[in-house]
Amino acid sequence: MRKPIFLDHHSTTPVEPAVFNAMQPWFVESYGNPHSSDHAWGWQAEAAIEEARAKVADLIGARPADVIFTSGATESNNLALFGAAEGLPANRRHVIVTATAHPCIAGVADRLEMREFEVTRLYPRADGLYALEKLADALRPETGLVSIEAAHHEIGTIQPISEIAAVLSSRGIIFHTDAAQAAGKIPLDVADIDLMSLSAHKLYGPKGIGALYVRWRPGFTVTPMFVGGGQQRGLRPGTIPTPLAVGFGEACEIAGQRMAQDGYQLAGLRDRLLSGLRAGLPDLVVNGGLESRLAHNLNVRLPGIVASDLLYELRETIAISAGSACASARIEPSPSLLALGLTEAEALSSIRIGLGRQNTQADVDIAISAIIAAYDKLIAATRVA
Ligand SMILES: *Cc1c(COP(=O)(O)O)cnc(C)c1O
Fold first, then answer.
1. What domains does the chain contain, in order, with CATH numbers?
2. Would you place residue 219 in the very low, low, confident or very high pLDDT band (cuts 50, 70, 90)?
3. Distance, CA 355 to ligand 1 centroid (Å)?
4. Could you tell me where the DSSP H helices lie in the chain?
5. Ligand 1 atom closest to Cα of residue 76
6. 297 lines ligand 1 (CB under 6 A)
7. pLDDT at 329 over 90
8. What is the pTM of this model?
9. Residue 325 has pLDDT above 80, yes or no
10. Is there an atom of ligand 1 within 6 Å of 153 CB?
């Protein structure tokens, strides 16, 4: 069986060949521990890691010393939120997250709430954006920490994080942003941002590595999750995986160079996909606004069907995902789509398509006809039944 065309680039991306090549020598040939300070094997690995750290920092306008390598955005988000929350004084223990946050952030917020923190979950406008006024209304004198995703993992909404950061910074509130979907896709600058999470495998780098940017300033502490040998300012001890770090650095450098070109090309493919689908599926509705949105994202609902049935029909042709998560065999509607105001049935009829660098017009055309054919088949089956 031919593999279905991969159109699920929000879940992960392929490793760019140049990234893979850059990683290879660091597995078998140059395997020194980057934290060995007594010999050339260690120095060589350390130099490679610091070069990679500088490339990651460069993509987000940070100083290399402020970038901490982690195992991925899940760990970065946990470290950022648990770590920053722990350092908040007793009178600043109000935390704001969004109702559309990635499950790892929603999970941390639930845990903080079980401890001595108060948590507000902010709801977006129907287009997916968080209005600054609504955020300002939610702020209290006790607010110590706010987390808002830079670009959304399901509907691709790009938030005005620089404006949000400026408002929060002027009030001394710590601002964290999960930029796993945004980094390498849109320009980012950490000015005024205290904490930013990144993941290599969302930007054509390897799985298993990410970073947390930390803006060090007086009175701001991030408590480590692990205790160990003191690496990376003690914030994230443990041996840094040299091949993964080198690959992450390379992927960031390439993403920086290709960002404009990729964005232009993917926006063209996405527009072709949407108009093709609209032509064959007049009932289709786009979830979230189209204006402030990642170029490679499309999330639509197809009234009258259940997305998981559609994905099953499409399994041999294209790989896309449903606007839902499987929680122990029961299919749950996406909390993010519900937060946008969709009904359960609408959320369950939604699909997410994430285009990538390697996708072509031909891929998009196959996807259009396959989705329309599968939809028509499912609708015909409901009429008979
Ligand atoms: C993928 C993703 C994560 C998790 O990243 P990992 O590196 O796989 O742990 C977190 N947040 C967002 C927005 C993501 O898209």
1. 5-12+259-384 (3.90.1150.10), 17-253 (3.40.640.10)
2. confident
3. 17
4. 17-23, 25-28, 40-59, 73-86, 103-114, 132-138, 161-170, 242-280, 307-313, 335-339, 344-348, 361-384
5. 9
6. no
7. no
8. 0.97
9. no
10. yes
